[in-house]
Amino acid sequence: MADQNAPNSHLRLEWVYGYRGHQCRNNLYYTAAKEIVYFVAGVGVVYSPREHRQKFYLGHQDDIISLALHPERVLVATGQVGKEPYICVWDSYTVQTISILKDVHTHGIACLAFDLDGQRLVSVGLDSKNTICVWDWRKGKMLSMAPGHTDRIFDISWDLYQPNKLVSCGVKHIKFWSLCGNSLTPKRGVFGKTGDLQTILCLACARDEVTHSGALNGDIYVWKGINLIRTIQGAHAAGIFSMNACEEGFATGGRDGCVRLWDLNFKPITVIDLRETDQGYKGLSVRSVCWRGDHILVGTQDSEIFEIVVHERNKPFLIMQGHCEGELWALAVHPTKPLAMTGSDDRSVRIWSLIDHALIARCNMEEPIRCAAVSTDGIHLALGMKDGSFTVLRVRDMTEVVHIKDRKEAIHELKYSPDGTFLAVGSNDSSVDIYGVVQRYKKVGECVGSVSFITHMDWSSDSKYLQTNDGSGKRLFYKMPSGKEVTNKEELKGVQWASWTCVYGLEVNGIWPKYSDINDINSVDGNFNGQVLVTADDYGIVKLFRYPCLRKGAKFKKYLGHSAHVTNVRWSHDHQWVVSIGGADHSVFQWKFIPERKLKDAIHIAPQESLVDSNSDESDSDQSDVPELDSEIEQETQITYRRQVYKEDLPQLKEQCKEKRKSAASKRRERAPGKSIRLHFVHGYRGYDCRSNLFYTQTGEIVYHVAAVGVVYNRQQNTQRFYLGHDDDILCLAIHPLKDYVATGQVGRDSSIHIWDTETIKPLSVLKGYHQYGVCAVDFSADGKRLASVGIDDNHTIVLWDWKKGEKLSAVRGSKDKIFVVKINPYMPDKLITAGIKHMKFWRRAGGGLIGRKGCIGAMGRTDTMMCAVYGWTEEMAFSGTSTGDVCIWRDLFLIKTVKAHDGPVFSMHALEKGFVTGGKDGVVALWDDTFERCLKTYAIKRAALAPGSKGLLLEDNPSIRAISLGHGHILVGTKNGEILEVDKSGPITLLVQGHMEGEVWGLATHPHLPICATVSDDKTLRIWDLSPSHCMLAVRKLKKGGRCCCFSPDGKALGVGLNDGSFLMVNADTLEDLVSFHHRKDVISEIRFSPGAGKYLAVASCDSFVDIYNVMSSKRVGICKGSSSYITHMDWDIRGKLLQVNTGAKEQLFFEAPRGKRQTIPSLEVEKIGWASWTSVLGSCCEGIWPIIGEVTDVTASCLTSDSKVLATGDDFGFVKLFRFPAKGKFGKFKRYVAHSTHVTNVRWTHEDSLLVTVGGADTSLMLWTYEMEGHRESRQCDSEESDLDSEEDGGYDSDVTRENEINYTIKALSTNIRPMFGIKPHLQQKEPSLDERQGVVRPPVSRALPQPEKLQTNNVGKKKRPIEVQCHPTPQMCLSHSFLQSLSVTETAHSAYVVWSPSWDLVLELVFGYRGKDCRNNVHYLNDGADIIYHTASVGILYNVATGSQTFYQEHNDDILCLTVNQHPKFTNLVATGQETQQICQLQLLLSTCGMQ
Hints:
Blueprint: E1 10-17, E2 29-30, E3 36-40, E4 43-48, E5 53-57, E6 64-69, E7 75-82, E8 87-91, E9 97-101, E10 107-114, E11 120-125, E12 132-136, E13 141-146, E14 153-158, E15 165-170, E16 173-180, E17 183-188, E18 200-205, E19 210-215, E20 220-224, E21 227-232, E22 240-245, E23 250-254, E24 258-262, E25 268-273, E26 286-292, E27 295-300, E28 305-309, E29 317-320, E30 328-333, E31 339-344, E32 348-353, E33 358-364, E34 369-374, E35 380-385, E36 389-394, E37 400-405, E38 411-416, E39 422-427, E40 432-436, E41 442-447, E42 454-459, E43 465-470, E44 475-479, E45 484-485, H1 489-492, E46 521-527, E47 532-537, E48 542-546, E49 557-559, E50 566-571, E51 577-582, E52 588-594, H2 596-605, H3 609-612, E53 617-618, H4 631-637, H5 650-655, H6 658-666, E54 676-683, E55 695-696, E56 702-706, E57 709-714, E58 719-723, E59 730-735, E60 741-757, E61 763-780, E62 786-791, E63 798-802, E64 807-812, E65 819-824, E66 831-836, E67 839-846, E68 849-854, E69 866-871, E70 877-882, E71 886-891, E72 894-900, E73 906-912, E74 915-920, ...
Antiparallel strand pairs: 1-52, 2-3, 3-4, 4-5, 6-7, 7-8, 7-10, 8-9, 10-11, 11-12, 12-13, 14-15, 15-16, 16-17, 18-19, 19-20, 20-21, 22-23, 23-24, 24-25, 26-27, 27-28, 28-29, 30-31, 31-32, 32-33, 34-35, 35-36, 36-37, 38-39, 39-40, 40-41, 42-43, 43-44, 44-45, 46-47, 47-48, 48-49, 49-53, 50-51, ...
């Protein structure tokens, strides 16, 4: 239906009335162009006083609360509130984003400041620690971060005369910061006796380390360094909110309504008291001041902006006004004039001119105003109050006509009838009162049908009916003026409504999202002529719908700007404008309505302009008239890559099994086998859910991926080399422009991207930390320095990397729907495109963020699902392939043309120097010219075109093409069926690689005599593979059902295949033709086994817990094995062919006798003595050691024993292939582990002579061949083998010193407990029994073997509380300390980990330190200066010891134990030392030995 599409008309923000003065300061500046920049709600405003024109920056999503101006006064930084707030740096000329800084702060950004040269930006967060961050804002990179203060910080500034120095101030503190490296170090300002400790609200830095700050009591505090040197008392009568430094001096503004100007020495110049001027009023409070030349800008608490010319300081010019405190709800428009009326909780009603963009009248009321309405003749203005009364004013002079109070609760809605006879008044107490206008507003009726408060009302055109909405979501109708409820729907048929402002009703069903009952739409207004509807909601969004919109979930255009809830919205009388008001942001927005016909003209003339101001966007809701997705695409979008357990979880899971680990470590376990395996060849290619993942390398090899393996395939030699750095499914691959490096992205909880060399197969960079669950698309820039990636998280996050540095440059949320491809613009590496489900977006890098614009379809149709995209011959040209077979041609972000290219989706597209090549679901490769006007040639992928040298068989004609690449005179094609083909431009096709298609592969069997194996899969194919060096598929057969198991007969002539529907086949092993088939079971056949020798019996196990035994010769079922409590997983015959061993899903090991299937009970010791023809069991005492510590989480899915019964290979649910010695007795045996499969390894089999191990991965569809190598033949290979989990607890364990050091806990010693026991009576206070001498009265002189008591003795009592230092001191000629003075000492000594409080004029200087940290540190003593000095550390002190003099010099910047030390050996950096301490801080200290100092 038509109403399901978004309207073609458009809104553009034209004017914003208001200024954010409340709860903000220092947010008003002159730009270089003499324009004024400020903010209101979520909009940055650039106002030109000369032209009376506004420009808008709309890059924020929530309230802006901070602003800083670049020193060149062109760029502006603004910070917002929100759960994930960010900072935008933008150009005040173009109002375009330059940089986005994000991912650090929470709650909001309270303050911002640029440094002197404008290269760095500092920000302060609103989190509990008031975190301070320093940014290289152009790169979007955080340089330093530190907790600011426990209380709120109000202002921060760079010291413009000292590099790397900052000052911050706030609640009862001021801090002076030094930036050194990436460390921010604070020193608190010392108030001393010069001034009282109090809250500092603003500051400005001056020369010679002087800082001026404004205090809460109106004083100005002057600081030198960190010390308060003087105060200017009474500078203002109340708190100083703003201080601005300029070339002429300083300007301050305060709560007293005064602006004071000061010279550069902070001597007063003049005072401007705004309260005393013509525009002034009592209670005026200044929040922001900006002084430039002879002009001063002043922003007030009540949302006003004044401009003062200094020589006419008594005549300030009011350039902006807005509502202030409380919420803004009341809005009405004049019926015949371009006027809007608003009323607020600030008790003021204001009339705005929509043409002049100015306030033309204001009147203050007695009560807060909640709603407004203008009579149809435009004479009366009715205002509904919060106290239940309403007042009617004359619009002409704002004089009162009548004041009526019939209700006790707030009036929510007022409406005059179209004929002007009645006024309907809806209140919070659920009733609507009807008043007669001509009877001087006498009450003439009452509507009492609602059960909740009245929210919206509309009159019928004939004034005979009223419809209402209430808080319970009810829509009711009343007869007027009596107020009688109308319940008969027939009576309402044909009623025409004069206006539509109700949020409920058939005509506006579409404004509500599907499957939602939320009551978050505050206001609606219908434009009947333009057939559009505008809404306002709680999320700060104004939306434009078609009218009427009858079905839920209609499409819309949305417009941001308001920060929180938009409380009301109305069309102007002539429908030229929409006026919207914000509740908490106090702002009034005026939007220009651009009808459909004008919109076309606007796009034709200036395509950029239509998007600069609007920030419009299509809705995210489903569209009923979009064509259904292609089945392949739909299937792909439903694939989930999320694991219950990821490989990253293994360490944590093992940690949870500590008890098991300890018990295992205490027992001596059999060592891992000496032999090993090496990955030799992989059959398979990931095509079913990936695209454009197949390329020629520089040397002509082919690189692609399957499972967790990056494969480099040499097509001449038919050999493969492997990148094994991944540990889960690789989902995407991109090649470097020089075709020597490859980037691959994988699945994972914290998924990684690996960049590796195709020649050396070594990793160059691993990128982690930003993508959750997986990476689905990657792309290199044309210069190869950058990499773009897309995640498969819910927001499909896009990240731009400097991959060599491993550094994230920018990131953004991409789309809620799946993104299939990302491409970096080859001409401009800061631009890129993404394509996906109903998604084509053009991105531009802005610092740490990316700004995206949706592709503009215009009249060409609707956004289709895009499967592939490339850039063309110029920087603005892009091409995308759609799910309907079209190629879309884009210029910038506008669709200019579509070309029909394929029947079905275009899955892959490759750009050539002169033209393009495309591939689609129709199995056709098409070559195009460079404008897509002519198809030059097509190649159909058919079996008939297959060249003789092919390494396999093509499963079907015209397979769906997923990847295309060109090079070396050929076209490389990857198909959905897992095939890689090389198409010669003359026509022949060579099949190079193939594997199973989508679906799990479980069935695997190796031939008893030949290097052949068979596989069967859920993709409904049975395949025979050659394991000899030719590595090709020998035969394939399509099955009616998928299969889960297969087995060769002992003579290798027959092949048994178990299917998923409970049937099984026996086929000829050479031709795959049926020999016989049976269907006795309903559930999946899980295992099938021929008895050894002559193969007389065939055991067939199913998931319905039975094993059927068939006589092969007679083709009859001769026995049934019963007794299993779960499905059968594994089976093995003994060498006599008489006994069957069975494993079940309930971890039962059962035994049955053939042929009848009688169950036998065999002790475990006897089981070991039995000779088994094969061993694929995973249970029993012989296999106890193969189960991991976390066996409850993961299953061992398969095992296979070598013919010499020495090595058991296993596969498990984590994708590991492991080798154990056999028998693997005792828990948690040692093993060798190999990663190549992604998730569960479903089956493993040794070949007949044990030269190869063959493994299949379930969902990764791959068949892997591993060569078996004897001891002594192993080379060291990357990711080849990994030892078992318990290596660290090997026999013998750690050395005792190492054990003790390993167990040291370095958690912060915050003196939470006393270091010494503090109970009992101190020795000197204990009552002692008198000695014999004392009792006899004998007095002896004191005798002591101790050294003579030193002159000074100092004891530090370290406990929970800070205690004064007790000092016993003999007086010296230099000083004498009184006892009272000693009690007042209070020190912070950083050399020890304890705190001692210290504030007087005396000081202690560290003279000598005894000790060296050797107990838990190493390599921490070094010679310096050719052996003249020794550097080492102890406690929190770095010590430089001079060998000749025996003196010590100290580095004391650490505040906790130093644990490590190293010396820079480079000759360029002599005497540079790095030390690291406990609390995550690293310091570099420069030893300046010439001056014996440390920095």
